Structures are given as C-alpha cells and as structure tokens.
Amino acid sequence: MNDSVDLWPHRLFWMGDPRAVAIFSVKVPRDEPGPWLGMGSWRPWRQRSTSTKGLDGWLRNNEPHLRQDAFATINRFYRWQRAQEYVVRLGAIFVDIDCGRSVFDYSAKDAADVLRDLVQVGRLAQPSMLQFSGRGLWAFWLLRDEQDPGTTPFANADNRELWTSLQQRTADTIATAFPNLKLDRTAGEFTRVTRLHGSVNPAADRRVRYVLLPGPAGEPIRYSLEELAGFYGLRRPAHVRPLGESEEDRRDMELEAHRRREEKREEKRQRKEAARTGGNPRLSDLGRQGHVKLWRNRLRFLDRVRVEIHGGVIPCGRRYTMLSAYAYCYAKLTRDHSEVAGKVATIGRKFCEQPAEDLMTEAELRGITEHALGWAQNGSKITNWKLAAFAGLDPVADRKRIERLGLNLSTGPKGRNERTRERRELAREILQAAFDRGEDPPSARKFAQVLTEQGCATGRSTAHALLGDLWAELRPGNGRFSALE
Fold first, then answer.
1. Which burial class, exposed, middle or buried, applies to 18 when counting CB atoms under 10 A from its CB (0-12, 13-18, 19+)?
2. How many CB atoms lie within 10 A of CB 154?
3. Cα–Cα distance between 455 and 433 in angstroms, integer?
4. Are the beta carbons of 430 and 450 closer than 8 angstroms?
5. Mind giving me the DSSP string for 145-169?
6. How many CB atoms sit inside 10 A of residue 209's CB?
7. Where are the domains of the chain?
8. CA 310 to CA 377: how far, in whole Å?
9. Which conformational region is residue 384 in: left (phi greater than 0), alpha (psi within -120 to 50 degrees), or beta?
C-alpha cells in the first residue's frame, strides 16, 4: 500500500492567490528535530507555514513528517501565523460530524447517507467533497470568489460575516433534521485544520481519505458565498461603515497594507537578484513600478477625500463622479473587467449613500466600469487637476486642501520652484515666531512635522537644510546653527 500523503484536497481549498499562506500542524516525536517551528521537547505539536506558490518544493522536503497526525488549514493567511485576524482567503464551508466513538453513534457511512437525504429533499446544498477521517465525517462546500472565479473569496469584513452565518446555518440545518448526529460545533472557526489525505489517524488506526463529489460536467462543485446565502435564504450584510471606525475595517486596511508591503519586497528582491547576476532591471520594469505607485497614490487621495471630507460615506450627489474616479484608477492598474467591476461594486455597496428613492442599479455600476476600461484602453489620460474635480474639489479654490490630502497640483519645474518658495516662506514665519517668543529653534524632526501639518510636505533632511539657512539669515551674528542633530 502506498503510504505517502497527497495534498489534492487541500489544493482545492487553496485555489488561486499563490502568495497566500497555508499552515500545517503535525505531531512530531519528542526526539525528532525536524524542520518544524517550536523545537522544545515539551511541545510535540509543531506548526510550519508555506505560501501556496512554494507548496510543491515544501512537500518534497517534508513528506515523511506528514504520514501520521498531520493537519493543514482550510483557509489561508497573509502572515506566517495561524490566527483569526490574519485570514486572507476563505477555502470552504464545512461541518465535522463525530462518528463511531460509541455503539450509539452513527457510522461515517450512515452520516454520509443522512447528508445525501437532506440534499435530495432540498434542505442542504450538495457538498463538494467528503472526508472520512477515521473517527468522523467532514463535509466541505468549496468556495470561489464571486468576481474572480479563479480564486477563493477574499476575507474582508463582509465576507467573514457571511461565512460565519453560512457555517452556523449549515450546521443548524443538519442538527435540526437529525439531532442525534454529533456535530462538532467548535470546528466552525476560521483557523480550523483538517487531516491530510493518506495520513494515518492513530486513534482509529485508519488512513484518512477524501471523496470528491463532482458536478454534472465532472468538475469540483464550487459555490460563491452569495450562491450559498441565496440557497439558505440569508442576506449579505448591508453595512455602511466609515473607514477606520470598526475593527473589521481596520483589518481590511491592514490586509491591503500587507499586500503592498509584500509587493515592494518582491520588487526589491528582483532588483537585488538582477544586480547580483550582473544585470540591470529593465527600464520597462522600473516604469511599471512608477506607474503602479502613481495610481495607488491617486486611490489613496480618493480614500482620504471620502473619509476626511465626506465623513467616510460618498454622498448621493457625488456617487457617479467618485465611482468613475475610482474606476479610472483601477482600470489603469488592471485590464481585467471582472476585477474592476468587483472593486467598483464593493465601493458602491459599502460606501455610497443609497436612499430608498435613489438606489444605484447594477446597470449604472456596469456602465461606470465599461466606460473606465474603454477610457484606459484608448490611452486617455487623467491629470491630477481633473481627478480633484472628479472628487468634488475645485483645483483653484481648494488647492491647498487638495495638496494636504496628498495630490500634487504643482508639477514641472515651475511648480517645483513655487513649492520650494512657499515652503521657505512658511519656514521663515515659523522660525521667526519662535525667536519672537524667546524659544529655542525646533529640532529638524519637529520642524519637518510642523511644516507638513501646515500643508508643506517636508522630509527631515530638507528641514535640516532650511533650519541652517534661515538661522544664518535671521541670526547672522551667530553664524550657522550647528546644534541641529
């Protein structure tokens, strides 16, 4: 008998998003050093993480350790740590039924028959896959993203809430129909692990096996969260949360920030690798990096306008122009119609005012997306002035306000000279006011902070140079200020 394990069931949980992290949990003998984290002899359970992208190589190196008491996560994470707040992709809805632990329990085969009967009478959605774990039966409903069917759903706040509701409703449906089935209610958590196919459950001395229940065309059955919610009569949460006001929104922001950091690390690694091998990064790569940074900065400007000016919610009178601006920015970052449409729909659903007499329709959102993609494909350009106007600001009357929000309206040599002059005049006023009050000059760090708060973004080195020049100008008898460090 082949005693090797196979990850084909977990690869179905981990579809798409190769950077997402899967975490394995394995019971290692106390005297086995192994490649596992947590080497203390007091801790036989060890955990190890790998990105989906590096799964094949990792499996070749660690397969001998996975043959007994080996588990892996169903959902995936954006950090190398198995914690609920770091979940980034949702792999499946699942239930765990304890079987055969006493003479009164259902057998795993009988439990599978119960699920089949519930499916036939229309009370339970058809499972995608079953797992016979040795002492129980697991049923899985594989997931796919609504907008991008090639990956699993992103674990934002709304998807987490809907996933939790589906876990509860699925278990309730089974428990109501067959109360004697022993459902493990604690299994329905984000960080749950399940045994690997082909590994041994030593408590039952049985090998774990998965059974795929394919669809009509022979492919694995996958559901979007919306499809399962519709089957059970659940509604997607309709929350309008101003950004930054709740734990869920902060978690969403942290997920996006982590992704940006990972992309920057990957770009830095590629540049180092090119330098090590004697090559140079292609100019097209450097240009692409600048292009991505430009449009992400513009998206951040739109987010700041929405939060700091409109209180986190896009008002009814600005919905079309603000959503168009978001769509244009996303269209310059990707030409994938489904991805842009998903982003626009999410922003419209979460942040736009939706009075009962003036709800945004799917046709309106689709029109905005198609216009933005057509505009990007035609090579059209959008200036910072035009972007500010789309955000509902006057580039002339609101110029200082716009630049404080992070959008630069002063470009080219003339604009740079103007910014330098304005910064120097403001710095002179601040320093002279300090001298008039009899105060010591501020540190370079504090000086940079004050200038930035008053609308002139300034780094520490620039503030250091300004302090030295203005000290010599305002206190010429004392020479250049030398205590700036």
1. exposed
2. 21
3. 18
4. yes
5. -SS-TTSPPB--HHHHHHHHHHHHH
6. 16
7. 8-232, 281-404, 412-478
8. 31
9. alpha
**432, two tokens:** 């002279």
- CA dihedral in degrees (153, 157, 163, 169; nearest 10)? -160
Given pLDDT bands bounded at 50, 70 and 90, which one contains residue 166? very high
Pair type for strands 136-143 and 222-223: parallel
Identity of residue 117: D
Contact 109, 37 (CB under 8 A): no
List the one residue out of 285, 293, 322 whose CA is nearest residue 307: 322
Residue 479: its pLDDT value, please? 45
The owner of tokens 């009370």 is: 123
Nearest-angstrom CA–CA distance, 264 and 272: 12
Q: Let me know: does 88 contact 76? Beta carbons within 8 Å.
A: yes
Helix, strand, or coil (residue 327) = helix
Cα(165)–Cα(21) distance, rounded to whole angstroms? Answer: 24
CATH for 8-232? 3.90.920
- Write out pLDDT tens, residues 347-384: 888 888 888 888 888 888 888 888 888 887 777 778 88
Which tens digit of pLDDT belongs to each residue from 35-63?
A: 444 444 434 566 778 888 888 888 888 78
- Band of residue 424 on the pLDDT scale cut at 50, 70, 90: confident
